[in-house]
Structure formats: structure tokens, C-alpha cells
Amino acid sequence: MTQPFLKILVLHGPNLNLLGKREPGIYGLNTLQDINAQLFDVAVELGVELSIEQSNYEGVLVDFIQGTFDVFDGLLINPAAYTHTSVAIRDAIAAVAVPTVEVHLSNIHKRETFRHHSYIAPVAIGQISGFGAESYRLGLQALVHHLRTASSAD
Ligand code: DQA
Predict the structure, then answer these.
(1) Cα separation, 118 vs 102, whole angstroms
(2) Banded pLDDT at 4 (limits 50, 70, 90)
(3) What is the per-residue pLDDT for 2?
(4) Which of 2, 117, 130, 134 has its CA 20 to 30 A from that of 25?
(5) Looking at residue 44, which CATH number applies to its domain?
(6) Rounded CA gap, 65 and 44, in Å?
(7) Catalytic, out of 12, 104, 119, 136
(8) 109 given a catalytic annotation
(9) Which residue among 16, 18, 83, 136 is best mutated to probe the pocket of ligand 1, counting the most ligand atoms within 8 A of its Cβ?
(10) Lowest mean per-residue pLDDT among 4-8, 111-115, 125-129
């Protein structure tokens, strides 16, 4: 039986364009380009198609999420600071009901208390937090695994 060719959108939120220069003690030395290149390699291994976008603007991220409807099978998102503030991003994910995995480079649960709450977590399949650039690889693997097993189990 052939597997359906999955299309995944990867969304990076605000300030992630500065990775590599931005607080390297917290976020590491990998640039966003490094992370994206690693994700494209993982996508080839997994046999899925990736589109990757980054924005510093909440409304632009909402537009990208709305655009997943009937186009993408899954969403891998690091909402960055909007994790802790954005009802709009949460509502967009709930509206399109695209299976979503939330990722963070740092472990948000062992940082400042304002980072402990995620508006996104309740509308995500799960959250991976604290493994640096590896969080993205783990998140993509988990999302694809979920999509492949959910479509055969449901
Ligand atoms: C982050 C954690 C957020 O709290 C922060 O605002 C970010 C990055 C992470 O990947 O660790 O910008 O999402």
C-alpha cells in the first residue's frame, strides 16, 4: 500500500530570524538557515514535503495558519513569544484543525514564570521544549508519526 505524500508547514515566530546571534546561551549558535536545512534533510528521510515560513507579525502568522486549510496535512510551529500571548494564533489553529506540534528551543517550563503558560498547547497534539535545534527534528518526526498512525487508526 502506498503512503499518502504528506505536506507539512513549518512556521517560525518572532525573533527567530535572529537565531545564532540572539542570546546564544539560551538559544544556541544555530541560525534559522541551519535549522531549516536540517529540517529539509529530515523531510527527505521521512518522505514528506516541507514549506517553511518565518514572521515577526502575529497577523501574518495567522494568515499562514489559515492557509493550511485543505493544503497542508500538518503544522510544526515555534510561536516564540506569541506562545505566551496569542489567542489569535491559538484560534487560527483551532479553526483550521490542522494537526499541530509546538516546539521550543529552550525549556519554557524552567524559565521565567510568564513563559510557563502556552496558549498553543491546548490545541496542539503535543509540545517539545528544551532540546535546542533538535526540538524541531523531534517535532517533525513526532508530527509525521502521528499523521501516519492517526490516518491508519481512525
Ligand atoms: C522560544 C521560547 C519563547 O519563550 C521565546 O519568547 C522565544 C523562543 C524557544 O524556542 O525557546 O522567542 O519559543
Answers:
(1) 10
(2) low
(3) 61
(4) 117
(5) 3.40.50.9100
(6) 23
(7) 104
(8) no
(9) 83
(10) 4-8
Answer yes or no: is pLDDT of 154 > 50. no
Has residue 131 been placed in a domain? yes
Give the position, in ligand 1's atom list, of the atom nearest the Cα of 84.
4
- Reading across the β-sheet that carries 126-129, which strands appear in turn? 49-54, 7-12, 74-78, 100-104, 126-129
Confidence band (pLDDT; 50, 70, 90) for 153? very low
- 27 catalytic? Reply is yes
| Domain encompassing residue 111 | 6-153
Mean pLDDT of 70-78: 98
Share of the chain above pLDDT 70, in %: 95
Average pLDDT over residues 58-62: 98
Instruction: Among 104, 115, 118, say which to mutate for ligand 1: greatest number of ligand atoms within 8 Å of CB.
Output: 104
**Distance between CA atoms of 120 and 77, rounded to whole angstroms?**
9
Please give the tally of structural domains in the chain: 1
Taking each helix axis from N to C end, the angle separating 134-153 and 32-46, rounded to the nearest 10 degrees, works out to 30
- Residue 108 located in a structural domain: yes
Measure 77 CA to ligand 1 centroid, in angstroms.
Answer: 11
Residue 107 CB: number of other CB atoms within 10 A?
14
